[in-house]
Design brief:
683 residues, single chain, 4 helices, five-stranded antiparallel sheet, five-stranded mixed sheet, mainly beta, 42 strands
Length: 683
């Protein structure tokens, strides 16, 4: 069934549809809040299903045997393309819905929240935060909402269950889950301004954004931020903050750029302005362990990304995995994935808090996949690696004023993506492509991963979009298999002396695959980068350009790797048949989920399909075309009709992933339900 959501004029910030339905929703089932934060088996209560973020569902109705019979159950439009709600600039629909208490909640790029009946897609209410849609945000998106049940509230009373929204313009908003009305006792009329109190104030609205939902742990909302890349050395600061879930009062602040001389990391930031550095923010999803009173925070590179002469040293806490006490913000442990980051190697993937088996015992762990194409497995209580990590020498910088860190941490687990571009492996559609790629390569520094940016230009492999990226990982709790989408494309990064530079040095091509150029204020340099690609548009790196990789965390070995997606229909004039194009894979942005039925679901690719894979073999079992790229992470839940549903946001990004406002749910047809086989793949 395909329905359209019709949005009537809003007389207030929230539009409530069906007061009787809202009251019935309040009374339908009691809201629960177990201390470990795990939802009921059929729910998907957080971005990663639960606060731990494994993205694994115990539902097993969908199996290897019947997944091929999945069909569209409902298809709605969020209205984001209508003139009343559309942004002036490109937006990206990257939201993962949640389902709790019999309602599905999804957010749009402009921060609107829709509450839907999960079995039909019918609207229960909508809320519009009325943000300024004319601002050109760098990543104009919103990846979802969070929820919390107030244990002190009377069941069924207003705001007993809340939905928390962080629109990109830097607000934290609490809504009544039943009606969409702002919770008046939270902040100021339901809103907290996250721009207030920052150490480095944003110089413009678009420099400071929030794209990920807050972590909710024991009555505390933990919020990160997204800071615009490469604009200036003293960019907006990236403090992580904890707020009271009931009142919105600030409880604590943690700064990834240490400010106190007695902080053990203070001396790792060298130079007179080093402690004024901005960013190092946590723009990805933060994971939480309510039982241990922990939040695990993935931090990003300090500002600016590609020149660190104003912030010499290892820059500890930046580009790191950091565990904080959720109740106080106190540092518990930290593990740095990149020292003195010069490559925009943010920890973009959300951490996954899982249990692994080591030396015959179960160990609580943190999985962190990185843009460097590595997977780190850390002890959740200490931060110590559970699989060895080796510090290896890496190339030095030749840029005046820069001092690259001499070593970097390499995981002993199999690399998820290539770390070096061999000139003999240069790729292209034809001889002219390959000749052009080789000619460019001959002028660049190309000494493998962690070769610093240079004045002549440097091959960065993986590129700034990974390796592993913000799509993150899925972890099968029963089979102890981790699945990661991986990009295998390179970028070319060049620093240009700003003094005396002509206008061409600041030329940008206005699209993601073209040149991106920026004046890094507070430094002597301009940064210019682009994807390393041939004249035909294909990457100069050999295919596959994107893969799905599975590792066993029992053995530490790679189980399988398969091309993810296809560039068929994207690259025109390719002298290759369909089978070859399909084997080339596709760059991807979006995440996977795993289920007890032995399945992995992922969209994420440029070819605009949603796919199912066998988690034990990597065999593709099913695919469905999407109206625009599913640049998001899917989710699954059990409806009140007993069916297991699969939902994906398929709205693209207004550019290479296409453009739409589609939210699509799949399920087995009722006839297939009546004759479905036993879930052999479940355990």
């Amino acid at each position: 069934m395909r329905t359209s959501i019709r949005l009537l004029p809003l007389a207030a910030l929230a539009l409530v549809v069906g007061g009787g339905a809202a009251q019935a929703q309040r009374e339908a089932r009691p809201a629960t809040s177990p201390r470990d934060g795990r939802p009921a088996a059929g729910e998907w209560a957080a971005y990663g299903r639960d606060p731990l973020g494994s993205r694994w569902s115990p539902l097993a109705q969908l199996t290897r045997e019947n997944v091929g019979r999945l069909a569209v159950a409902w298809h709605v439009h969020t209205g984001e393309l209508l003139p009343a709600h559309a942004a002036r600039h490109r937006t990206s629909f990257e939201s993962t819905p949640i389902v709790v208490d019999g309602t599905l909640y999804v957010s749009t790029p402009t921060g609107r929240v829709l509450a839907l009946e999960p079995e039909t897609g019918r609207t229960r209410w909508t809320f519009d935060p009325r943000m300024d849609r004319t601002v050109r945000f760098g990543d104009f998106t919103n990846r979802g909402v969070s929820t919390w049940t107030d244990p002190a509230a009377r069941p069924g009373s207003p705001c007993a269950r809340r939905i928390y929204l962080t629109p990109i313009d830097g607000r934290l908003i609490a809504l009544d889950a039943a009606t969409g009305t702002p919770c008046r006792g939270f902040g100021t009329a339901g809103t907290v301004d996250l721009r207030r109190g920052l150490r480095n104030r944003p110089y413009e609205t678009a420099e400071y954004e929030v794209t990920s939902p807050p972590a909710v742990v024991n009555g505390i909302l933990v919020v990160g931020s997204a800071v615009a890349d490469n604009g200036r050395a003293e960019a907006a600061s990236g403090e992580v903050r904890g707020y009271d879930a009931r009142t919105g009062a600030l409880r604590w602040t943690w700064d990834p750029v240490p400010q106190r001389p007695d902080d053990p990391a203070y001396a790792t930031w060298e130079g007179p302005r080093a402690h004024h550095t901005g960013a190092a923010n946590a723009w990805s999803v933060i994971a939480a362990d309510p039982q241990r009173d922990l939040v695990v925070v993935p931090t990003s590179s300090p500002s600016p990304d590609y020149y660190g002469g104003e912030r010499l040293g290892s820059n500890r806490y930046a580009s790191s995995v950091v565990a904080l006490r959720a109740s106080t913000g106190a540092l518990v442990w930290t593990f740095q994935t990149v020292h003195h980051d010069l490559w925009d190697y943010d920890n973009a993937a959300p951490p996954a808090l899982v249990t692994v088996r080591r030396a015959g015992r179960d160990v609580p762990a943190v999985l962190q996949a990185t843009k460097t194409g590595m997977l780190y497995v850390l002890d959740r209580e200490t931060g110590e690696p559970l699989f060895p990590v080796e510090e290896r020498p890496v190339p030095a910088s030749t840029v005046p004023g820069e001092r690259a860190w001499p070593t970097q941490p390499f995981s002993s687990l199999p690399a998820l993506s290539p770390h070096r571009l061999d000139p003999d492996s240069i790729f292209g559609l034809n001889d002219a492509d390959r000749a052009a790629c080789r000619a460019t390569l001959s002028r660049l520094r190309n000494e493998g991963i962690f070769t610093p940016p240079s004045l002549e230009g440097t091959v960065a492999l993986p590129s700034n979009v990974g390796g592993a990226h913000w799509g993150g990982v899925a972890y099968d709790l029963e089979r102890r298999i981790v699945v990661v989408p991986v990009n295998r494309i390179a970028a070319v990064v060049q620093l240009i002396r700003a003094e005396g530079a002509d206008g061409d040095a600041l030329r940008s091509e206005g699209e993601r695959l073209g040149y991106e150029t920026t004046r890094m204020r507070g430094t002597p340099y301009i940064m210019r980068r682009r994807i390393f690609r041939a004249p035909s548009g294909v990457p100069c790196t050999p295919p596959p350009f994107g893969t799905l990789v599975a590792l066993s965390l029992d053995t530490g070995k790679k189980l399988w790797e398969v091309p993810l997606g296809s560039i068929e229909g994207i690259v025109r004039g390719a002298d290759a048949d369909s089978a070859a194009l399909a084997s080339w894979g596709s760059p991807s942005l979006g995440g996977p989920i795993a289920t007890a039925g032995g399945l992995v679901f992922i969209a994420a690719t440029l070819d605009r399909h949603l796919r199912a894979f066998d988690i034990e073999t990597g065999r593709e079992l099913w695919r469905a075309p999407l109206p625009a790229g599913g640049k998001a992470t899917p989710m699954t839940f059990e409806g009140r009709d007993g069916r297991q549903y699969l939902v994906i946001a398929a709205g693209g990004d207004g550019e290479i992933f296409g453009r739409g406002d589609d939210l699509i749910a799949y399920a087995l047809p009722q006839a297939a339900m009546r004759r479905r086989p036993a879930p052999e793949g479940s355990r």
